[in-house]
Amino acid sequence: MSSRVLVVDDDRSMCELMQAALEKRGHEVEACTRGAEALELISNRDFGAVVTDLNLEKMSGLDICKYVTENRPEVPVLVVTAFGDMSSAIAAIRAGAYDFLNKPLEMEALHLAVDRAIQHRRLREEVKRLTEEVGHARTAGELVGKSPAMRKVYELIGRVSDTDSSVLLTGESGTGKELVARALHSQSDRANRPFIAINCAAVPANLLESELFGHVRGAFTDAKTSRKGLFERAHGGTVLLDEIGEMPMAMQPTLLRVLQERRLRPVGGSAEISFDTRILAATNRDLESDVEEGRFREDLFYRLNVVEIHVPPLRTRGNDILQLAQHFVDVLSKRMGKPVEGITAEAAKKLLDYDWPGNVRELENAIERAVTLTRFDRITVEDLPERIGAYQSTRINPIDVDAEQVLPLEELEKRYIERVLKVVGGNKTRAARLLGLDRRTLYRKLERYRERADE
């Protein structure tokens, strides 16, 4: 995207002053003093933004606004007006101006306004591009996104989908682990057989064994008939054991034996039954830490974790946020029968700035609310939940750091470690690997942070 700026003012000295100020900030600037020359330049060259005085010798700045709106609507125009002349400012906005600046013109205000205008254009172009691409963005099943983190997920799906190896899906709640599991199933030779998911945390412990392995008639009080379990019902297909970290310890040895032998015995039964079912597991817990602390069996962990696929949190996926948002707009507007086509640039910026603690699930919920409430054909900031619309990013630009923001190195290390842990969903082993530390060193640092917090 061009950062070339066109400056138009019939006062040559003002033209040169604005040109020098913007060039000092790194922009490529062209300046002219006549409106006709400006229109010719705009028609033949690409500008990131146009800055024009309202009163020109033979042409109004409003005329330039109207010309750009009709012929180059993607280019934002900033109009310089006399201080307090609100009627002119309103006329400029109606003519299609992106913003207006008051005289006497401060160069710092000009710089900030031009930067905002160029960023606004870039964001609009990105939203448009992603809108056009969203139909082609589903690389695996219903998964959407082209970020490096998701490309790694797609690569792993492609490499292991045709095998029968167990796969452990890790990642924060709401990242789409079940969608990855369904993609593994749909791209495998088992695609035409059942895919069955069970949430191990949602089934009472006393019923989980029966749910997985089935039971015979009379096995317990309510067992009036025999019933096949999920492993048997999914014969030839795939079973996803979601929230595997919540499986009761008493149940884990039984599951391990079944996975090793590929044979199961229904509750209350005497005969074993062979089954051919691929097993996938998913968790938002740090299972390696659970193993070390005795909350999960080590042998079962290694049986399930033949291949690990980590599903990244939404906040690390960049423009995938906008691709997903557009995908949800398309799906939900069609479902609701509302003519909503996309998202405004301002709303897109809010979506990109927000931290998404609830990940893709939270994004879908936010877009559903916005599509439900919007009165326009594009979602605006006002349509988003207040926590998103009012969110202020805490990201710091290192170039702009002042003395008050400088932190002791140890505090900076602590905050960075905490950030990495958040990104990997609390997985200390993965965090240690990313940080270049061994796990014991990381544990010692975390223990020291806790001790200082208690002092």
CATH homologous superfamily placement of the largest domain: P-loop containing nucleotide triphosphate hydrolases
Strand order of the largest sheet: 2-1-3-4-5
Distance between the termini: 52 Å
Architecture (CATH level 2) name of the largest domain: 3-Layer(aba) Sandwich
Notes on the protein architecture:
The chain is an alpha/beta fold and 455 residues long. It has 4 domains: 4-133, Response regulator (Rossmann fold); 148-310, Rossmann fold (3-Layer(aba) Sandwich); 314-389, Helicase, Ruva Protein, domain 3, CATH 1.10.8.60; 404-454, Homeodomain-like (Arc Repressor Mutant, subunit A). It is 47% helix and 13% strand. The protein is built from 19 helices and 16 strands. It has helices spanning 12-24, 35-44, 61-71, 86-94, 107-133, 148-160, 177-186, 205-213, 230-233, 252-261, 287-292, 298-304, 320-336, 345-353, 359-373, 386-389, 409-423, 428-435, 439-454; strands spanning 4-8, 28-32, 49-53, 77-81, 99-102, 167-170, 195-199, 214-215, 227-228, 238-242, 263-264, 273-274, 278-283, 307-310, 342-343, 378-379. A 5-stranded parallel β-sheet has the order 2-1-3-4-5, with helices on both faces. A 5-stranded parallel β-sheet has the order 7-10-13-6-14, covered by helices on one side. Strand 3, helix 3 (61-71) and strand 4 form a beta-alpha-beta unit. Helix 5 crosses helix 13. The protein is elongated and about 100 Å long. The two termini are 52 Å apart. Residues 135-140 and 396-404 have low confidence and may be disordered.
